[in-house]
Design goal:
The structure is a homodimer. By secondary structure, chain A is of the alpha/beta class. In chain A, the strands form 7 sheets. Chain A has an 8-stranded mixed sheet with strand order 14-24-23-16-17-18-19-15. In chain A, strands 26-27-28-29-30-31-32-33 form an 8-stranded parallel barrel, surrounded by 6 helices. In chain A, strand 20 and strand 21 form a beta hairpin. The radius of gyration of chain A is 33 Å and the shape is elongated.
């Protein structure tokens, strides 16, 4: 006979699938000798059987429940529905907690008959009546599905009639009146009297829990989160204990360590003669847990012992609920405690130092979503509460920023120079806005997704950004934004949270968190476990310095185009673009050359002998041309050209789908001189740094947007020719020439591409874009909707699409390494900083991931976690 | 010992790899008893050995050449360089003929000593001198690499000094003077006397042929055409025969059948006392070959016998060169004869009817590039010669068209209504131009590639189109075009050739070719061999009728959006797009519904029970909105909206990369009512046609742009719901719901997609676009350049990229059929009409290909060819 019902003594924390999370933990605590109110769990299999049997509880399950109830009464020496009166709680407990499911019914077992006896045993009729009132209300709404307002109306009218303010002030008489009115509601709504048989109450509650597994909200939630329908929920039936039966009773909540700082000190509150909900409700002020020692030293010590035991047992800081019933200490719940980012780090390091955890376990356990908080500003929580939230965009780059809004890069710069805090607000940003982005505290855009220009650049700068905020109507020419009724003009304050995507109207102070020593310790441990290295995407020497500060092993992506926008270079670039002949183009490029060389020298000097992977020019040329009439006129004047010539050049470069147009290596092939000058600048910069410092820089030259081996072959040959010319003595013997793998076709012919490549770097942004056919610039709204509808589990630009894009990546790696077994392979798309993606990349045996400098620490931890997990799963397989 | 040298008696047509094409054919003719001047071939292996040996002819090869030369002298009873004098020709002959390689040296073996004897044996000193003069010139330029102008100057100055006009009029004395001057040039340029030793002449010529295999032009040609370097070239050494040694000598060229009409009659010309080049030069008028009978009946009969023998032997119409030397008939060359499209068809059918060929061979042999000529107009060749060609664009849709140029759809329509011939000229076309395209004779655009809007729509209409003509500067607002010095205004005549991409200024008459009975016979044979069916892409009832006329088995792609542009529908579509609520949108769609239903009814009625695969709305909505200010104002008035509201709607829909934006099934998911109304129109149309005709229509509903199984699952469920509602009696029980496979990701997850699809239709245009990252609208110029540079072998939008896109298609088919073994799979991209692509698709076991109606005949033949080849290769394998 299959066992469907398990006494707490029969379960363990390993039995989550069968007993649900709550049931497994109650059993576990019970079995390590902690004082848990007795009870039993009805398994998830019983739930599945219930649905198989057309929503009836089978005789087999019933007989086991009956037996468990019998046993429970014996254990606690009480009588269910009799005297001394045993009351129980009935709680759902699935493996994964799900909103919309039935949660809890307390005080089950009470009826008109045993009420007196129960009152006598607790010494308070008012208490007993209040329990009964609550029970009818909970059972009525949850089991009988009577809308809650029916009960609320009654209690409110009784309070009103009797000038009573809080529930606590209701007298016995009031409660009796409420109970009789509640019962009348039950009759009126269901046609039957309120159930008086405790056993029938119990079975009705169990059925209600089972049924809630398949209510609409739960089904929708499962569908969206890809939770299988067949895992089912367990039901926990547990003896009630009461903290509000007198001054020797009480209740409290503690953390085993300080959840804000991580300090090793029990932390929490308690209230005597109170129920759990009283602590939360805030009507009486709870006391600091340390005061419990003077109230009841024995209980206090038991709490300390339990806390210590649980921490050691679960190897993690615990969040514990306890109740004292007439001097007896009970544990009601334990779970891993939520904690701040700072506490996360400190607890992890302390646990290792205290010998409670191995380093790899500490790392595997880390909740990396907290790491961002350590590296970015946060809003003052109190001020934030009072600030109106007006819109929700995409959390494009984490952090919090507040400032006056300006609508163009120039105004932002001017305001910032005056010392103002500024937020740059644009429909969408383009490379022309870079200087404004540098000066702003944060960036807000109405269009574009997680990998739009604004998002990518902001993350690179570690700057807060909310992108794709469709709710906001931005009018750049009138310099104002509209959101609902709010109209904000240039100079008005807003605050944006790049971690949540929320936008607030007004000023909210922000605070920074300093990086602790523990953080450094943890990061260093992490690196010892990782099998992938973490590189940074860094375009400037500032980026490079940040990259080193955050522990990047090198630069995995240095985009040369961003250099083109600074100072006077843009003029020369524009001159190059409008050139009619190869000679003119070369002359313009020669003017850019010294700038590029100096930029590279600075980066090489900063990075020493670490590798610096430089991508040759990638974006379509029109990105370098002005879009507004004023700017066009200015450009014509500067270049000494007719305005019509400039306009014609801009028109000629216009493309309907620029992302799939003339960019990347296609530019390099059509205009050989562009890549040749860049290669010359890189190689000469390296040679000069070598000359000046004695250290051999380690540049790598990367060809973007390759779709066929032929393209790479042609361009590699040209770079090699430049190398031979510029470095005839071959001082940079190790110079590598590699390619981005970002066009789906490149994955399909990766073996042939590998013939001409020293390394592959997956550009997962473009690869995702083309594999899915989702324009990075346009698909923000669509993707949000898809995620909301459950068509997509997650934005594939944030976390790699393992099924689709991942298959292409795998294929490319296999093909590439079939040609060159030692081919170095990394990734430099935005997903390089995402935890799930990193775990996936780790399974593919990549050499490195590269991400924005500010995401490097998280990526280092994620890489370490992935390696530890991979090791563990191998160990298990072996 | 390896055999490097083969007497003609030792070779055969199967030995092309070793002997080259020319050598193998000379041997073949020789062996079937035809009178070929004796000779031998030095094999391609000898060429490779030559390069392996650092460009020296090995002793082994040398000894074999010497022996062959000895044998040749014995065979013909002449003495090489002696008396009677044997002269030879030396010709290259690779497996694949290549421009830039050395071609021919004639009269080799002549020197100062044997000249007299040679003159005596031919009876003409002038003739002998002319031969010697030509030999020195050819040998000097080809073997000694002396620039040709050195020789040209001498001959011209002699003519000038002596008032001689043609070479024929040069006297013996003139020739002697020329020869001595030629020799002086040789000394001056090389430092040595002109070689007098015939054997040394021969070896120098052989080395020159070998070396030319690796000259720059040949190497480049091989690289571009992916011809392996190691196949090498053979060298043919053959006894010279002369048609110009008197009135009993002569020369001629004949086709075994009429190359224009295919009629079974020997066709060609001859000249007595002449050399081959005299026939071509046109100084004397050649005579019709039939007159040879009276000149030399014996020779004439030998020619007829040879022609018949060669036709039967090669199973194809032959193009033959012959020479009569002093009454003796020699064959110098035979090859498959080039012929017109009409002749191609007639010859193929006649050969089968004459029992010379099996049907499948006739089909396998067909040169399909000629088929287009049969279906499209051609220019009058004589007028064309005198018409200036001003530009070259892409041959987007075959045919020839002439007319006055107009720059917008409205003007085109007006002019066409007045009876004018019109060419629509646009920078690029959009769906708004459809009516203009219908009225125009042809379409010329400056932008866009082979699958741009103009190209696709024109091919669908069977209308001539030249797209992506970058040379032309089109100014739509000033209504004029500039090309070089030419300025053309509205109303000026141009002529465009969509088969070649050429653009001419002025009017050129065009002619149509009627389809012959033979053509129908051939097409019917073809269908019996094909394993894939050919469907047509057809959006209207006119298209559907064309599809049937050209033998399509059904409609493989019916695009519903084109229906939206006609009449008043566009207004309702626009109303739908600017709707703010679901209700407004539904109301607007209800107005479109009757139009759509009527359109479908017409198509279903035309197609009977054949399948009609209808794609639900695919393009981004902004394509339906006006772009010009005037049109925007008009739209605002018609819809009774503020102009600013219309502008805002247009702006909101603007996308940076619309091809990867909100289109296809994404629209269907975000606006369920759009697909629901379309499904309703399709199903009700089918039910009404069934009611009216008693025939059950066979509609198939296709969801475009699917990237994940979830998208298809959601939309399929909605279509099924509409079906259940509209057709409760399930009269259309066979209704299939399928999907386009056109997003790379769909290929990668095709097994999951197949769970929800009754069929797959590969949209190879979009699939190519995204796999390559080549925007169809923008990449025309880039792709031309890539093809020119040899980076791409062929435009992947014209002929499927088997290596990249093909791999994805294969994967999708495997995955799809792993889920559903009987899954119907077809293709409906532009490559569905391309011969090489069809052959590739045939190997993938596709059920059908679908292409424009006008490409159906060619596709049917291509499918048949592919099946015949596949069968043959299987047979060989077995």
């Amino acid at each position: 006979m299959k066992q469907y019902v398990f006494d707490f003594s029969q379960g363990s924390k390993q039995m989550k699938d069968l007993l649900g999370g709550k049931g497994a933990n109650l059993a576990e605590m019970s079995n390590i000798g902690l004082p848990v109110p007795a009870g039993f769990t009805i398994s998830t299999e019983a739930c599945n059987q219930y649905f198989l049997d057309q929503k009836t509880i089978s005789a087999e399950v019933k007989s086991q429940v009956d037996a468990a109830l019998e046993e429970l009464q014996k254990q606690v020496g009480k009588n269910f529905g009799g005297s001394p009166c045993l009351l129980v709680s009935v709680r759902s407990g699935s493996v994964i907690s799900m909103p919309g499911m039935m949660d809890t019914i307390l005080n089950l077992g009470l009826n008109d008959q045993n009420l007196e006896g129960f009152a006598a045993s607790t010494g308070s009729m008012r208490f007993a009546l209040d329990c009964y009132r609550r029970f009818i209300q909970m059972y009525g709404s949850v089991v009988l599905q009577i809308p809650m307002f029916n009960f609320d109306e009654i209690i409110e009218s009784v309070k009103h009639e009797n000038n009573v303010v809080t529930d606590q002030d209701l007298s016995e008489e009031h409660l009796r009146s409420i109970i009789s009115q509640y019962k009348a509601v039950v009759v009126q709504q269901t046609g039957s009297e309120f159930e008086q048989d405790p056993v029938k109450q119990l079975y009705a509650a169990i059925e209600a829990v089972f049924s809630s597994w398949n209510n609409d909200r739960a089904i929708t939630y499962r569908r969206i989160n890809a939770i299988p329908d067949e895992i089912g929920t367990a039901v926990n039936v547990q003896m009630m204990v009461f903290g509000n039966t007198g001054d020797d009773s009480g209740t409290g909540v503690v953390f085993t360590r300080n959840p804000s700082t991580g300090e090793k000190n029990i932390f929490g509150e308690f209230l005597m003669n109170a129920q759990g909900e009283d602590v939360v409700a805030g009507i009486r002020t709870p006391k600091d847990i340390s005061e419990l020692e003077t109230v009841n030293k024995e209980v206090y010590n038991e709490l300390l012992r339990s806390a210590d035991l649980l921490e050691r047992h679960y190897n993690d800081m615990q969040d514990i609920e306890f109740t004292i019933e007439q001097g007896k200490f009970y544990l009601l719940q334990t779970r891993n405690g939520k904690r701040s980012a700072a506490a996360t780090v400190k607890v992890a390091v302390d646990f290792v130092n205290e010998g409670l955890l191995e380093k790899e376990e500490a790392i595997e356990r880390l909740d990396l979503s907290l790491i961002d908080q350590l590296l970015h500003a946060e809003f003052d929580k109190e001020v934030l509460k009072k600030t109106p939230e007006i819109a929700l965009g995409l959390p494009a780059s984490p952090g919090a920023a507040t400032g006056k809004i300006y609508f163009d890069a120039e105004s932002v710069e001017e305001a910032a120079q005056k010392g103002e805090d500024v937020i740059l607000v644009r429909v969408e940003t383009s490379p022309e806005d870079i200087k404004g982005m540098i000066s702003a505290n944060g960036i807000l855009t109405a269009r574009g997704g997680m990998t739009s220009h604004a998002a990518v650049v902001a993350r690179g700068m570690g700057k807060c950004c909310v992108s794709g905020c469709q709710d906001i109507d931005i009018n750049e020419s009138e310099k104002q934004i509209k959101v609902g009724e709010h109209v904000l003009k240039e100079g008005d304050y807003i605050s944006i949270d790049g971690t949540t995507g929320k936008v607030y109207v007004g000023k909210v102070p922000t605070s920074n968190v300093d990086l602790s020593e523990d953080f450094t310790t943890l990061m260093n441990w992490a690196d010892t476990f990782s099998s992938m290295e973490v590189f940074a995407n860094a375009d400037t020497v500032t980026d490079a310095e940040n990259a080193l500060k955050f522990g990047a092993k090198g630069i995995g992506l240095c985009r040369t185009e961003h250099m083109f926008f600074e100072d006077d270079r843009i003029t020369e670039i524009r001159r190059m673009i409008v050139s009619q002949t190869k000679e003119e183009r070369e002359a313009a490029l020669e003017n850019v050359y010294p700038y590029q060389k100096e930029d590279f020298k600075k980066i090489f000097t900063a990075m020493g002998s670490r590798s610096v992977n430089i991508r040759l020019l990638d974006p379509p040329l029109h990105e370098f041309l002005p879009r507004e009439q004023k700017e066009i006129a200015k450009m014509a004047t500067v270049l000494n050209l007719e305005e019509s010539v400039v306009k014609k050049a801009i028109e000629d470069l216009e493309e309907i789908n620029p992302m799939m147009g003339l960019r990347g290596c296609r530019l390099g092939i059509l205009h050989p001189e562009v890549y040749e000058v860049q290669a010359k600048a890189i190689i000469n910069a390296a040679l000069e740094v070598l000359e000046q410092t004695g250290v051999v820089p380690n540049p790598e030259i990367m060809i973007p947007l390759v779709g066929s081996a032929q393209e790479l072959a042609v361009l590699r040959a040209r770079v090699v020719a430049v190398k031979q010319q510029v470095d005839p003595e071959n001082k940079l013997a190790g110079l590598k020439i590699g390619t981005m793998i970002e066009i789906p076709r490149a994955c399909l012919v990766a073996d042939k591409v590998a013939e001409h490549a020293d390394y592959f770097s997956f550009g997962t942004n473009d690869l995702t874009q083309m594999t899915y056919g989702f324009s990075r610039d346009d698909s923000g709204k669509l993707i949000s909707q898809y995620v909301q509808d459950g068509i997509l589990k997650v934005d594939p630009f944030s976390s790699i699409d393992q099924e689709g894009v991942g298959t292409l990546i795998k294929m490319a790696i296999e093909k590439g390494r079939s040609q060159k077994p030692d081919l170095k392979i990394g990734i430099c798309g935005e997903q390089g900083g995402d935890q799930n993606s990193i775990e996936f990349f780790n399974t593919l045996d990549l050499d490195y991931v590269s991400c924005s400098p500010f995401r490097v620490p998280k990526a280092r931890l994620a890489a370490a976690k992935a390696a530890v997990r991979a090791f563990k799963s191998t160990a298990v397989t072996l």
